[in-house]
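Please complete every field before forwarding. Incomplete forms are returned to the sender.

SECTION A: IDENTIFIERS
Entry label: holo-355
Bound molecule: adenosine-5'-triphosphate
Molecule representation: SMILES string

SECTION B: INPUTS
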Amino acid sequence: MTLDVSCQIERGDFSLEIDFSSDARITCLFGRSGSGKTTLAEVVAGLIRPRSGRVALDGEVLFDDSTGLSIPTWKRRIGYVFQDARLFPHMTARDNLLYGPRRAGDPRPDLEEIVALLGLEALLERRPGVLSGGEARRVAIGRALLTRPRLLILDEPLSGLDGARRGEILPYLDQLSRAGPPILYVSHAVEEVARLADRVVLVGDGRAVGAEPPDQAFDRPEAETAAGLSAPLSILDGRVSGHDPAGCATRIDLAGTPFLSPLLDVAPGERLRIVVDARDVALALTDPIDASFQNRLPMRVASLETRGDGVLTRLEAGGLTLKALVTPQACRQLDLTPGLPVIALVKATAAARYA
Ligand SMILES: Nc1ncnc2c1ncn2[C@@H]1O[C@H](COP(=O)(O)OP(=O)(O)OP(=O)(O)O)[C@@H](O)[C@H]1O
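SECTION C: PREDICTED COMPLEX
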């Protein structure tokens, strides 16, 4: 799937300039409340007409103001799951699932498969009034999937759910990301984006320009502002190489660099993504072998940038990139310059697992 959006939107006093292209399995629209994420999603779905520009999915033009073309929503084959599940209250979960429109000639979608994918078996005969928020969202996602969409739009699918309910639904979203259609995922929550996104479109200050890998997107000051972060995040993809025999730590291979995290319930060989706050990375010129840092990574300074009252230091080693936010004093003391070999010091406990 390739989604190309290049258009201008006006909605009352609000205007948004959009220009991105993504062929990722999960593209996240990330920005703070009111930045225009839902508006952008509604443009893709055909629920809002842009003032000008063009929208195309897999090369098929859905909207083009220069030719006057605007394919209606129902012909776009895009599934849209709204922030509120919008299930029919008088129908069972099963009947809600089977309600979605279907194109003539399309093979009937496999209800069993989608029920299994989203863990809906026990819910089928229940009405929405006796479903939890998370269960209702899963039924709404199932209903959208049963229309065989080319693209699934999930607008803040975890909003309003407490931590436990979010934790319940996230593994289903992981499964969906592997087995379902491509997803346009709207969120203002950094945990969700860091866990799920293949590409991130930052929406803010009237702009949504470029779809970037999450680590790159979270390098930007705009992302820090949108996420309410005090420092950039490193979003690192790795594979579990094993668990500490004493059972208190997990070994992860980060692009060839071994890394120790707290014990994670992830089998060896599985992929995962961890997040490290740039403030949790210290630097040394020689290896402090008697310090408690479990990760002492030989790296090289790639670049330095003044960020607020700190210095954002980007580090590289093989395929691994890591960010450290240090004080200007520390920068002077170590005489940090691009190319300098350093040891990056990261406590195992500083690594959070998001996927
Ligand atoms: N029907 C409308 N008419 C005029 N302005 C609107 C309309 N709907 C939304 N807006 C405005 O458009 C802007 C973007 O709203 P939108 O819902 O797209 O933001 P969002 O990033 O999805 O926010 P949230 O995360 O809170 O859902 C806001 O300033 C909002 O007030």
